[in-house]
Amino acid sequence: MSAREEVLSRIRTALGERRPDVVVPRDYRTADERPAEQLREVLVDRLEDYKASVLHCGPDEVGATVAAALDTGLGAGWDPASVVVAPGVPAGWRPEGATEDDARPAVELAAFAATLTGVAVAIAETGTLVLDGSPLSGRRAVSLLPDCLVCVVEAGQVVGSVPEALPRLDPNAPLTMISGPSATSDIELQRVEGVHGPRTLVVVLVS
Amino acid sequence: MRVALFATCLVDTVAPQVAMATARLLERLGHEVVVPPGQACCGQMHVNTGYRREAVPIVANHVRAFAGAEVVVSPSGSCVASIHHQQAMVLRRAGEEGLAAEAEALAERTHELSQFLVDVLGVTDVGAYYPHRVTYHPTCHSLRLLRVGDRPLQLLRAVRGLDLVELPAAEQCCGFGGTFSIKNSDTSTAMLTDKMANVLSTHAEVCTAGDASCLMHIGGGLSRLRSGTRTVHLAEILASTEDAVSPQQTTRPAVSA
Amino acid sequence: MTTAPERPAPTPLAPGAPRSGTTFLGLPTAPRGVGHLRGDRSFPDAARDALRDGQLRANLGHATSTIRAKRAKVVGEVPDWEELRQAGKALKQSTMARLDELLVQLEDQVTARGGTVHWARDADEANAIVTRLVQATGADEVVKVKSMATQEIGLNEALEAAGITAHETDLAELIVQLGDDAPSHILVPAIHKNRAEIREIFLRTMPQFQGPDADRDLPDEPRRLAMAARTHLRERFLRARVAISGANFAVAETGTLAVVESEGNGRMCLTLPQTLITVMGIEKLVPTWRDLEVFLQLLPRSSTGERMNPYTSTWAGVTPGDGPQEFHLVLLDNGRTAVLADEVGREALHCIRCSACLNVCPVYERTGGHSYGSVYPGPIGAVLSPQLTGVEDNASLPYASSLCGACYDACPVAIDIPSILVHLRAEHVEAQERTTPEAVAFRALSKAMSHPRLWRLTQRAAGLGRLLARGKPTLPPVLPPPVSGWTRSRDLPTPPRETFTQAWAREHGR
């Protein structure tokens, strides 16, 4: 018998004939009814609590705010060529002279100082940004290797809770849920920010 | 109300003053107390040590002994929790379906002392007088299985003369755990040491709780240290009045007879 | 002690049926001689030494009290925590009830998306599969995401025997690996080490601090220590061709795998190498994509005490142009089906490895994880390890608990750990072929406690303990075993002259 057949047969033996019919209670909250403005406030509070920086702007000011975000993350005088942008990022958001990600080997992205991407959805209650591998979010390595990550979150992308976010996402896409800069609690269970992922996370929140 | 008192094997044998205090208290509140003579043990120690088959006749005896009781009260959170959560399960596993149903019905009528006073009788001021500095340890089974919550504290706050001091890290186990205290006596002692450190930090004269077993453990440690802080069951405090401290109540350190 | 009265009564097993050793209902338990599920000492023996280690006690006390406070705060923020908990429990129950169907569905989905699924009956088979897969790539080193399953089967040792170096990349696993130590916690394997000890390990072992020109300026601040790990691993991530991971969840409906982490080492491993091999216990399934909405709320708050962990990665098979282009999923039994056969004990398979039960356990807090002898320590380990190995191979673990119930309260999927502990104690007792002195005593007591007249006689005999006390209020501090376990550190009261029932009968004229 193959290992597959044997493991499946063991499961059938273990469960026997009487298999319980389990009803899953779904009486937990599946929607956050708070108005959009309040959800944005919660999102900002949670992002900042986990040491991300948040900059606010109107739809026409994204480009300038991204530049300010890079000032925050890299310090003034950064080199636009050291910023890599996901291929689907609108032209108006990009710093002039920034590099667009292409099919280069992923490890070469480590040479960049900062990354600019959009997001697929943002979850207010947990301060989470979800990137979905689309042209706007970029492939996974692009938001991982450079040390500073700038994400633009548009107004319609903010939901209240995790149950509202999952239906908006493709389960077959390579998703990355990001809540603050990379961190660890492995030393005395005290959280410190900045390990292997980007040590700086700046969020541009568009109203 | 006619109340059947389940003393528990431990209280009956080594801490009779706790059952006597429970009876005096209930009588003082105007109830008739009966002590079914066939009672012995709820079976918890056997079940929790792995002797669930051997627990079956013990549980059967308990169900028989209290068969006629309208309401049963016991001064032990742990034993009442076993009656509520273990007895029927043990009987069912042994195929004793009919007895299991009786055990369930009996569990419905069985109450831990503080829950009986507050929930069934609706009293928090039982007219007690106890002029001592006291700290309260919520025992694990009364806290997490019976969910007695702050009922014992409500009762203690209403006792005249009693100076109630909060116990730090109160919800941490004292390390008793039945046969755990013997099979893992080193770990149990480590837990007890921390519990005693917290009790002693309150400078209380008396550490109280709703379980004689945990109190025997904490009291045994405090006595070994010659600490002078003694353990007194909640029932003994509630039974005390201006006229008389509860019968046989100890005023000596910890575990004196 | 149980608090789940609605649970159906388990079918009684035939007396004398083999429950230990290698099979449970004919289903094999995890094999001996491979992996890390068995200790070489009993829990009380190992704990005795750990309890004397003052530094360990201080480190554990500090770490567990920190995480308990953080968890309590973020769990308290969630108004529907109990509803989520009950949903999580039911989801796991429903998964177990259809485990065979769901595994086949997962296999179909992963395969359809370009992945390859392998099945492993036990640790040896899983190790052989992974070794073969790594060898096929030609690589002689791999980077690893922290994974309990690969710790359980001893994969690193198996790879090493085949000449393949495994680099652990989780900070705590790295500390354990560099310190030539063993993990002592599910989430934070180096919880038993403090910052000063970690600094010493890093200075001693990391190449960046060796040599005459090395800058050995490393303060013991956690942030600086994390930076040192970043430097140490950066180049290894960039050159790695093969990564090995575990999985927190696998969605049967969509073939999606999920890894929940904090540092970004997981993302590095899941993203940069050409080949990804994931080893996953067969119980890690959830039926549908939607079900993750429950577990992604329960897990981070219970484990690191965060609203959400910094990074969660999900993937299904292979994505062209993004991440590994070769993906293998190894489905591991290694005793899990034997656990599934026990209607009470199978609830231990619901565990999502958050480690909340460890952090609240008064026993774990004092003895640490190594005392349990298995990669699964603490309350969940005390119910999982003996079931995976057969209870006789970990016979002391079900007793390593005072049954205080703090674990059950903290468990995000409401596993009734105390009830399973009690159940396993009975399995152990009932598996004994020889009559132990303890069994003789408990049987005699059972007889006495079920016959009132015999019980009164027994109580009177106990009262004779007064003779030992010679008029003192306590019994002598030196009594023979097993009572010596008590009297070494606690007094025993001298039994009273009269029991309560005697006194009552006397007063009431019976």
Automatic annotation (TrEMBL), chain A:
LUD domain span: 108-206
- Give the superkingdom in one word: Bacteria
> Pfam families annotated for this entry?
LUD_dom
- Per its UniProt record, what PANTHER family does this chain match? LACTATE UTILIZATION PROTEIN C
Name of the protein described by the UniProt record: L-lactate dehydrogenase complex protein LldG
TrEMBL record, chain B:
Q: What Gene Ontology terms describe where this protein resides (cellular component)?
A: cytosol
Q: Which InterPro entries match?
A: Cys_rich_dom (IPR004017)
Q: Which GO terms describe its molecular function?
A: oxidoreductase activity
Q: Which residues form the Cysteine-rich domain?
A: 3-83, 134-218
| PANTHER family listed in its UniProt record | LACTATE UTILIZATION PROTEIN A (PTHR30296:SF0), UNCHARACTERIZED PROTEIN YKGE (PTHR30296)
According to UniProt, the name of this protein is L-lactate dehydrogenase complex protein LldE
Q: Which organism is it from?
A: Geodermatophilus africanus
Q: What is the lineage of its organism?
A: Bacteria, Bacillati, Actinomycetota, Actinomycetes, Geodermatophilales
TrEMBL record, chain C:
Annotated keywords: 4Fe-4S, Electron transport, Iron, Iron-sulfur, Metal-binding, Repeat, Transport
Which residues belong to any copy of the LUD domain?
105-329
The ranges of region (Disordered) come to 1-22, 478-510
Which Pfam family, any one, appears in the UniProt record?
Answer: LutB_C
List GO molecular-function terms, semicolon-separated: 4 iron, 4 sulfur cluster binding; metal ion binding
- What are the BP-aspect GO terms? lactate metabolic process
Q: Boundaries of each Lactate utilization protein B C-terminal domain copy? A: 433-507
> What residues does the 4Fe-4S ferredoxin-type domain cover?
348-415
Kindly provide the name given to this protein in its UniProt entry: L-lactate dehydrogenase complex protein LldF
Recorded source organism is Geodermatophilus africanus
